[in-house]
Fold Transcriptional regulator WhiB.
Amino acid sequence: MAMISRLPGPLHQRWDWQLQGACRRSDARLFFHPSGERGRAHDAREEAAKRICGDCPVRAECLAHALSVREPYGVWGGMGEDERRAVMGPARRGACRTA
């Protein structure tokens, strides 16, 4: 789950980059896998999404956002879930514990 505390403030200027995303002209289902999708179907869908990201004018902003909020799902900025997890490292285990 994305960490709400890591999200930037509500200023619309911080989110304007999303209006320029190449993904806005594509089916959002391409960027997020359906439940149970595995193997070739998963890889083909993810590669198609990454091709769209490859020509995106806001790819860097998108990836920076996904990494900063530890976005757990989907293709963001040309990186899939596993790729982002590898870059981010493990989440702190104690962050959500209650006393």
